[in-house]
Amino acid sequence: MSHDNPLQHPEVQVASGRGYLLTFLVSTLLMGVALFLVTSHSVAPFGLMLALSLCAGLAVIVQIYFLMHMDLSEAQIWNTFALVLTIPLFILAIGLTAWMFQELYQRTMVMLPGMPGMLH
Amino acid sequence: MSSSTSKAIDPSSVELWDHSHHHHDVLSTRTFGFWLYMLSDAMIFALLFAAWGVLSYSHSFAGGPIPADFVKPGYAFLQTLALFGSVLAYGFTMVALKNGNKAGVISGLWGALILGAAFLALDINDVVHLLDAGITPQRSGGLSAFFILTQTHALHILFGLLWMLVMLVQVSRFGFTTEVVGRMLTLRLFWHFQAVIWVFVFVFVYLRGMLI
Amino acid sequence: MLVDLQGPWSPLLGRLALSQIPYENHILAPLFVVVVILGLAIIAAISYFGKWGYLWREWLTTVDHKKIGIMYILIGLVMLFRGFMDALMIRTQQAMAVGPDAPGYLGALHGYLAPYHFGQIYSAHGVIMILLAATPLLVGIMNVIVPLQIGARDMAYPYLNALGLWVTAAAAALVMVSLFVGDFSHNGWFGIAPIFELSYSPGVGVDYWMWVMQLTALGSTLGSINILATVVKMRAPGMTWLRLPIFTWAAVASNIIALTSFPALTVALALIGFDRYLGTHFFTAGLGGNLMLYTNLFWIWGHPEVYFVILPAFGMISEIIPTFSEKPLFGYVTMVLATFGIAGASWAVWLHHFFTMGAGPAVNSFFSVATMLVGIPTGVKVFNWAFTMYRGRLRFETAMLWAVGAVFLLLLGGLTGMMLAIPAINYMVHNSVFVIAHFHQMLLVIVYAIFGAVTYWWPKVFGFKLNEAWGKAVFWLFTAGSVLVFVPMFTLGFMGMTRRLDYVFNTQWQPLLDIQVLGIAVYSLSVLAFVGMLYVSIRDHAKNQVSVDAWGTARSLEWMTPSPVPFYNFAVVPHINARDEWAWRKEHGFTDLRPDHYEDIHMPKNTGIPLILGALMFLLGFGLTWRIWWLCALSLALIIALVIIRSFDSDTGYTIPADEVERMERGHHERARAVDLPAAGVLGGAIAYGQADPAVKGQGAALGGGMTSPEGSRV
């Protein structure tokens, strides 16, 4: 695993202009779609949140694969492993917090039926 | 390890000391550690998003301005273009690095730097206008969460720009030494990660803010 | 942008004024005099013996993971003593201030501590014991042992390691300064929302607390990155994952927790900072803030933190018990799985710290069940230890006593934890001293494991054993103290005594509180016995020299290095053939620790930059606490500038030539041989040294004597 020339290192060699360009185009497009969906008011709130989350999720997956080069190759496997181990913790931290406070607000705040809330 | 189960082992068949001249891979040790730091940084963002989730109910704005009143999604999309463009420029920097093209690396870094600065200028302009209009983080808990989350991201951008300036000097002074290449790789992780965070900020703060 | 402060502020000194020095306080003023005299005496002694150069070259600028670990442990011990003094004051105050007729002294209505002062003491006690005693002690031991156990020459990032140490030292210094300049928070160690808001706590106490915690969070994050990268990237060839020593596994799990959970503390405290400095409304009671959000964010860190400190303790127990049972660890794989089971579960249980928030039955049930699940892997561990001891050749030396004691405490603490996991019970005893007694049992598991680990690994680091008789005295006194303090505390909790009382209204509790005072007196004796043990052991160190394998029955890789370990750890990196490599080599007779030839070793150079960065971090924290803006700007600018300047320095390592390595190694082997000869017959004593030169017993064996590096310092 010795690399006298640092430029020959697999993490340098993994750079790909086509991949970066593709990521730019796809994620800009997805953000544009999300923007259009919100400004056009064409979808009901629940479906809209679903569609927005889908756009964000797709864009992030593309970025993580093509920009961050997270894959199962020997050079990247530990980075990928660390990421996979951490993602559930992000979901737990945000998800459980959102859940417990929604329950709390239902019990403690005056929430009129038509009142717009954030998380439902 | 009771001795009854042990079998005699031929000493000549056993390798006890490592004389294989094995060098550990400095670059990937470096990027791995930095990636661990990025994950811990991502957790900071995750918890700021959790705080934003808790503080973005309608009652969180205490009767004051809500994001739907002041968020300009088109403007935020301009920021998106600037940041994604900067990330793309840094990507081309890495392609130039792969080819050992010093001039390419330097011009790529300048491109990423200028587009990143454009993102930051757009952000500062936005914040100044909001503050002038009395939409301040001191107004309500919801606005506190909005400002702190978006500006924490902006602070990361500022830090990245400073880092790029340092790298411009180091690339032209030292060329592609192991240290410099290592820093270019960690800066790549840092900078590209800001694009990932921005996707969430754009969608779940700016766009979703339109729905509150 | 900044909030308007009540009270005076000047551009030069911020909120700092002479009136902030509590010179009229009857406890702090004499203490300050003592501290000044002690400090001057230390400085005078170092100057008299001409040790400044040695201190600077060998310790302050070192990047050697073992020395950094020792300094972590020193910080931990000093802070453990400070936290113990706080506990002593809490216990005596509560026993003195019972009932309306209790007399008052030193300006207090009852007892001798005014409520405001008492509040600072219990807050400081918690912060210090968890973040500045337990954490540095554990991080220190991990620092020393993990690289040795995996066959590495140093950490993956030696420079970062030193930085983590000095940031932690800055936090410790900041909490000590709060004793004599201004005051400390009185909001409990975890911060009670919204009392920490500026309008309710206008002083600097909360700011001190906040920045101390922030600095420790930064130090722990840096440390966790380092240990994880070290284990992933620096293992010796042949050291596959399932050959990893169990303590290293525990360190991995523990540092995954630290890496991912400390950001929650950073966020929670930063948001308090925005509330207090900018006037935002994250945790305010009105204007859309949510004070439970703070509690939530804090415990997202706080609960994983509990397991961050307890998993290394489990790892230490798992190393000590096999050595003194003369058997391999029972159920190695299940032990690893249990460690990760606990680490994973730690991320879904934090609401059990605030069941009474009222999130409703669904939420409370989820967190209750998740909490109880933690009992399963913990039970697996207890049974594994029990089965390791079953039919083993048990030797109850001091380290083993601590380990077995820890297992008993774990049962007591774990079972009361299961009770508290049931929301219905939790509502009854919430914020009672029953909870306090429960988590002190768990923290005592850690203290026992640390004392055991220090006894166990001391000979590896210093080359001689600690005195057994004194060590056993410390153990039994400490255990008696624990029983006398915490059995009455459990009882009082059931009787309804709440935590943090500066005045106890129920006179019927007096006898139980008195027993607790007796317990803390016995604890004090154990502290004295500990000092006695250190004194006697260091005095007699020449008689208690040890060789490579100090206990004779140790199993893992660190016992293949000379004691004390040379600065380069392994002259030639060993090739790993088995899970317990050293036990395997002893079993098959490969005990000759001299490879056929030596090679050049590449080592990192010393640097003073981490020390300077730590000092600047301290100034930054101090400036932020007192709102001295020029000091904040200056120290922050210097920190950034130093980091950049350091990045321009590419000359960070040096090479030791092979013949120099061979010369140093020969010295180590001769010393080991001299020590080993009388101990023939013990398994570890059967090391072949061939025909070496005459013995050099006792030479170069002074404290840390074998660890001196030839490399001078360099800023």
Structure description:
The complex is a heterotrimer of chains A (120), B (212) and C (715). Chain A is built from 4 helices and no strands. By secondary structure, chain A is an all-alpha fold. Chain A has 2 domains: 15-69; 71-111. Chain B has 6 helices and no strands. Chain B has 212 residues and is mainly α. Chain B starts with 25 loop residues before the first helix and ends with a helix. The mean pLDDT of chain B is 92. In chain B, α1 packs parallel to α6 and α3 runs antiparallel to α6. Chain C is mainly alpha-helical. Chain C has 3 domains: 1-50, no CATH class; 51-553, Up-down Bundle (Cytochrome C Oxidase, Chain A); 563-603 and 652-707, no CATH class. In chain C, 62% of the residues lie in helices and 1% in strands. Mean pLDDT of chain C is 91; it is low at 679-715. At the B-C interface, α1 and α5 of B face α6, α7, α8, α17 and α19 of C.
| Mass-distribution shape of chain C | globular
Report mean pLDDT of chain C, rounded to a whole number. 91
Strand order of the largest sheet of chain C: 1-2
- Helix count from the secondary structure assignment of chain A: 4
Percent strand of chain A: under 5%
Alpha-beta classification of chain A: mainly alpha
**Alpha-beta content class of chain C:** mainly alpha
As a whole number of angstroms, the C-alpha radius of gyration of chain C is 26 Å
Terminal-residue CA separation of chain C: 39 Å
Query: Greatest interface and its residue counts?
Result: B-C, 58 and 66 residues
**Corresponding CATH superfamily of the largest domain in chain C:** Cytochrome c oxidase-like, subunit I domain
The low-confidence runs of chain C, each spanning 5 or more residues with pLDDT under 50, are 679-715
Order of secondary-structure elements of chain A: HHHH
CATH topology of the largest domain in chain C: Cytochrome C Oxidase, Chain A
Brief rundown of the structure:
The complex is a heterotrimer of chains A (about 120), B (about 210) and C (about 725). With about 120 residues, chain A is an all-alpha fold. In chain A, about 70% of the residues lie in helices and about 0% in strands.
